[in-house]
Structures are given as C-alpha cells and as structure tokens.
Design a protein that fits this description.
It is built from 14 helices and eleven strands. By secondary structure, it is α/β, with parallel strands linked by helices. It is elongated and about 70 Å long.
C-alpha cells in the first residue's frame, strides 16, 4: 500500500469484530512502532499487549472512563514511555520528548494496522494513570501515554472533514487565524459561522452513535429520553410535517424516525453540511431511512422549509448565539395552527457551582461541553420572557427530574444545574 493511501484512508474504528488479531500481524504492527523516531533515539517506549477480557474490562472501567470499545477490541496495546531517562530543562519549558516519541510510534502502528487490514483507535483519554499502571503491574516511574485498540473493523466510517490547507498553513510569519472558533462555553461569544465550523468538525468525535452513546444530554436508554419521545408521540399525527431543529449527531432524531412511518414527514435543519454527513452515517447504523435535510447558508439563520405542523427543539436554544433569531425563524415557518415541542435545562437555585467551576467553565475544552459545543442555562424567568418576545405562548409545561428530587436539588445548589422543562408552544 502506498504511504499516502494509508494516511488518507485510515479511520478511527470503534466497532470491532470478535475475530482475534493473528500474532504474526500483531508483531508487524509492533515492529512498525519500533522503527518510529524518538528523541535522541533513546527508544524508551514500552508496549503492553492485552488480549485478556477481564484485564480489558478493568482498564476500561477503572482507568479509562468505562469506554466500551476498549472492552470489545480483541487487542489493546498500552503505550508507556520512561521519561525519567529523558533530559529535562528545568529552567525552560518542557519539550515533552516522551509524548512526542510515543506519539510517533503510535502513528506508525495506526498506519501499519490499516495497511494490514486491521482497524485501530488511538485512545488518549486515560482518567487514572496510576490505576492503569497497577492493573498492568508497570512501575510507577513509567507513565502511560495512550492506548491503541486493534481488531478487524465492523464499520466503515466516512472521512471526517479536514480544515483546508489555507486555513492552517502560514508562510514566514504567523497570520490571523481562519476558520476557527472561540474556546468559550458561552454561545453568545460565538458567531453562527463559528458554531457551524465547530459542529461540522468536532461532532464527529465518538464515531457512530448507539443507544448508550448519543452525544446528547440523555442517551436512548434513559427515562428522560423516553419522556421526550412520549412528548413527541402525544402531539404528532400521521400527516404532520415535522421540523427537527439542529439534530447534531442524530441522537434524538433516531427516536423520532423510529416513531413515524414516512421519514420524509420529518425535515431537519442543520448549520453544516459536514454535520449532515455525520448524521446520515449514524442513521445507517440503525437501518433508518433519511429525513429531508436543510442546511443553513451564511451567517444568518434561514430555514428553507415552510408550512410546518410540529417543531421539535430539544436542548438547542441554549446552544445558539442568538436563540431569539431561531425562535423568529420557527415562528415564520410554523403554521398558525402548529405547535412547538421545547426541552431546555433551567439554571439551578445556587451560584456555588459558578464560583467553584469558574476557571473550567470559561474554557470549552476543559469543560463537559468540549465535544458538544457551547451552552448556557436560562433561568425560568429568562426562558419565559424569551418565549413571549418570540410571539409564542406556553399552553402546557412540566418539570422533569431524571435523578429524583433529592439529587436534583443537590445539583441545583452545588453545581447550578437545574431541572428539565418540557413546554408545548403555539403562536400568539
């Protein structure tokens, strides 16, 4: 295989067949890692090969956020590097020689695996390094860098979008950043184009969604998810034209499509064409037919659909730079007799959570929002005022607490998290 074919053809695989990786193939992959460059050619990497199911389960559950693909992959290669033998410039910035050297070996493994017909996944999210060391009986001084999951692929993901060269290559001197987005959890600090860029690139994280992983606030197996779907079923009719606002990865859209006979009754409005490609990929895994997609154009909201009977907007207004503009568009395309199903998480009672979490909440990539985008919580008063100014009225509302009263109140006080508000709107 040509090297450039391997570079552009390799994909991150998260669904593996149960078939074991032959030892001779595994040794070729490890040998490719051995030939990677390392700082001063010290080659201080250590590779622990894991095939035992119980050990993989311990790694996933105790050290790596319970990521299930670590349990399902036939083989894991845990990559360590002994940085105690690296030269350290204590008076200057760390060069992270160990991470750079280990990363070169990992990329060699990924490319070699693809050339040999093996799927791979570069797993960086190690939650507890010392637990991982303990599970594999590795000395504490040798730190884990990442895990490579290997196996025969059970999926064929499409290529995720790549930034164009002109947006990331600088000649002679650094130029102004292009085609990027703010590192802020507050959507009001984003433009619509910046949000579209983020949704088109980052929401590809996680690969194909499934019932346990939806890239949404609630997964398909939760009581809250079923509550939302029951809310939809109550007000949908066999002839309704439905508009789903910003389906993102398709987590809630899958539930809607499962509940209608004609998928073309459902129209979806998204900000990015790349995002739509990702949603289509996810619908295939559920063997669902496609709805009708509409993609926004430019830095102004414009829904190219009219005479809508029912709009679903589940946890979307809080993610927009200008939620009032979205309400205005929904009002424009909705029939006078139509309805809107809204779900939003209201802000909690206390401010302690803001005080404690302020440094992290200001930074998108150190918050829980890093893979789903910026979001703000409305107070109940702010939400009702926004609905009224949007020329809607609430004809039915209910509060929903997924975790029960006691835990819900605790979250509201300590973390400024509120409760889910379900609302049925009609035009005024």
């Amino acid at each position: 295989m040509e090297i450039f074919d391997a570079i552009t053809g390799r994909r991150s695989i998260r669904k593996f067949a149960s078939k074991a990786v032959p030892k001779e193939v595994l040794l070729k992959i490890l040998d490719a890692a051995r030939w990677a460059p390392s700082a001063c050619n010290r080659q201080l990497w250590e590779f622990v090969v894991v095939t035992d199911h119980d050990t993989k389960r311990q790694i996933a559950d105790n050290a790596c956020f319970k990521q299930k693909f670590l349990k399902e992959a036939p083989t894991l290669i845990v990559v360590f590097y002994d940085d105690t033998k690296e030269r350290r410039e204590e008076s200057g910035p760390r060069k992270h020689d160990s991470i750079q050297s280990a990363a070169a070996a990992i990329q060699n493994m990924n490319l070699a695996a693809y050339a040999l017909g093996i799927g791979s996944l570069w797993v960086c999210s190690i939650k507890n390094m010392m637990k991982l060391n303990k599970i594999l009986r590795v000395p504490k001084r040798i730190r884990p860098v990442a895990i490579v999951a290997l196996g025969y692929p059970r999926e064929t993901p499409e290529a995720p979008p790549r930034r164009p060269l002109e947006s990331l290559v600088h000649y002679e001197k650094f130029q102004q950043l292009q085609n990027s987005y703010p590192n802020s959890t507050d959507p009001r600090k984003w433009s619509l184009n910046e949000l579209a860029t983020f949704r088109g690139e980052i929401c590809w994280y996680g690969g194909t969604i499934d019932p346990e992983f939806t890239l949404e606030k609630y997964n398909m197996e939760s009581r809250a998810y079923q509550k939302l779907m029951a809310f939809f079923e109550e007000y949908d009719t066999p002839k309704s034209k439905v508009l789903d606002i910003l389906p993102f990865g398709g987590g809630y859209l899958v539930g809607l499509l499962k509940r209608v006979e004609d998928p073309k009754r459902i129209h979806c409005f998204e900000l990015s064409g790349s995002n739509v490609r990702f949603i289509r990929q996810n619908l295939k895994t559920f063997a669902l037919s496609e709805p009708i997609f509409h993609v926004n154009r430019g830095n102004r909201l414009r829904i190219e659909s009219e005479d809508v009977d029912l709009v679903t907007c589940f946890f979307r207004l809080e993610k927009l730079p200008d939620p009032e503009a979205m309400l205005a568009e929904i009002h424009r395309v909705l029939k006078d007799s139509g309805h809107v199903l809204l779900a939003t998480e209201l802000r909690g009672m206390g401010r302690l959570g803001h005080i404690v979490q302020t440094p992290k909440r200001k930074n998108l990539h150190t918050s829980r929002l890093w893979s789903t985008g910026p979001s703000v919580l409305f107070s109940k008063g702010e939400f009702f005022k926004m609905i009224t100014l949007g020329n809607f009225k609430i004809i039915h509302q209910e509060l929903y607490r997924e975790d029960g009263w006691i835990k819900s109140i605790g979250k509201q006080i300590a973390r400024s998290e509120g409760v889910t508000l379900l609302a049925l709107l009609e035009k005024t």
